[in-house]
Amino acid sequence: MALVALRWRLDVRTPRSARERLVVILLVVPGLVLLSSAASLFAFLGARVLERAQPQLTLPLLSAVVTVLGVLWALSPLLSGVTLTETHDLARLLHYPIPLPTLVASSLLASFLQPTVLALVPPLILLGLALAGVGPLLLPALVALALGLALIVASGQLVGVTLHALSRKRHLHDRILFAGLIVGLLLSFTPLVLMSGGAVPLARAARELLVRDVFALSPFAWGVRAAVHASRGEADAFLAGAGAAALAVAAALAFSTALAQRMYRGELDLGGTGRANGTAARSHALLPGPVGALMEKDLRMVWRDPRLKVVVLAGLLAPLALLVLVWLGFAGRVPPGALFALASFAGLSTLGSNAFALERRGLVLLLGFPVGRFFIFVAKNASALLLRAPAAVLIAAATGLLIGLRFVPAVLVVLWLTQLLAAAADNHLAVLFPIPVPAPGRNPAAASSGTRGLAAAVITMLAMAATLVLSLPFAFLAWLPHALSEHWLWWLTLPLALAGSVAVYGMLTASASVLLTRREPDLLARVLGEE
Question: What is d(CA 462, CA 2) in angstroms, rounded to the nearest whole number?
């Protein structure tokens, strides 16, 4: 318990040095409270109505819901990049005379006070009340549901430890991470599949799975099934389900402990240090000037990092998904205003690139180059815009096919000016809210200084809203000639919109440069994890 208390004290002290935690407290926690309240009400009413109307469906349906929740929770680092169960790095505690199983168990217990885990507690309590009511059967039902929650958190920890172990084998870790993010990106297109007529076959498949009660074999469902049996007074089935759930939790802890023992004892293959093919490094850059050299460095970093490849792919597929939604929403007759709005939202893709975190130790060298801070930002922003050129080509082609070629320049101007202002906003995020990226072999889910996941998502959403507000006057200039049916005015408004957005970008980037100069020590400490 001393280790658990130590972890809790460290989590409480983190907001003093990481302003992202303050964002979690001020914005994310109230949202989680509302979400947990809504889920509690839905769980209580849904389970109560289901148990009274169709009790034969209670076990299959609850098993399916809990299984989907558990799988998504455990695989969240691969599918979305957001870690719902933070895996603590135990390397700094290994020199103490504490058994490794105790360290792993303390890490699991400490995870139960994370906001995302606490948000699941009220729905589980109300689910137990809906099933068993207030009486002697409520306690065993809650115990069974607690075992199910423990298995979900333990599975998240197991996936985190596995990713930490795979990070020691860099190439394998990168391939798995790339594949997982691609799967998560494809799953985000589920609404498109449902809107395009895929809801009927999916509903049939789900009904067939429920009828056959396939999810009874899922370990995530054993706890909730035991709770249902407890509420019905079926003691033998309750003991069997609760025992199976407890064994599953113990197995997850045992696997996490065994994997951590192999990892921290150096038994895992640490991988190679690189490709030693004897190829001599080039003595000159392909792009001219210091800005060109920095752009080439960033482009090569994107080519080698699978996470950044996914970002580039998402920048291409996201406009395509939005375009399909617009097409379906307007039944094939897309108005020009919809394409202008699509260009504005697609332009936000340059946000969240986290310009400095991926430099890691190279950030010291980058800031030591005899290049002005302003031009460092310009080079990074130019690389981001260049990587999103395929999306611009896609939007231009869709505009020409759907509403006419004369709208292509205006739509592209809206896209470019939004990308430019989003890049300017991202420059400030990179300085004020850097997300430390662990070096190869370090825990990829650990937040040594700062945080990731919910806080980073909220900060990015706030930056998106600010960028849309900032770009609104210039986008209005690009849209105004069409609203007035005077398309010849584009010869005046489009250059004005571009010039105005470039001027605002220059002012914002100059302020970011001053901010970087003033906060360099703090930025280095945050990125290198030395706080």
Answer: 38
Q: What is the rounded CA–CA span in Å between residue 231 and residue 47?
A: 12
Please give the radius of gyration of the chain, using alpha carbons only, rounded to the nearest integer.
26
Contact 147, 227 (CB under 8 A): no
Handedness of CA 100, 106, 107, 108 (dihedral sign): positive
User: Is the Cβ–Cβ distance between 531 and 16 less than 8 Å?
Assistant: no
Residue closest to 43 by CA, chosen among 124, 119, 163: 124
- Spatial separation of the C-alpha atoms in residues 214 and 63, rounded to whole Å: 9
Tell the residue number behind the tokens 């769980």, with chain if given. Answer: 43
Q: Could you tell me the pTM of the whole model?
A: 0.58
Side-chain half-sphere CA neighbours of 180 within 13 A: 19
Distances from the Cα of 531 to the Cα of 82, 92, 521, angstroms: 23, 15, 11
Q: 336-385, pLDDT tens digit by residue? A: 887 888 888 888 877 766 567 666 666 777 777 778 888 888 888 888 88
Spatial separation of the C-alpha atoms in residues 502 and 346, rounded to whole Å? 18
In whole angstroms, what is the distance from residue 307 CA to residue 488 CA?
44
- Is residue 104 a contact partner of residue 3, using CB atoms and an 8 Å limit? no
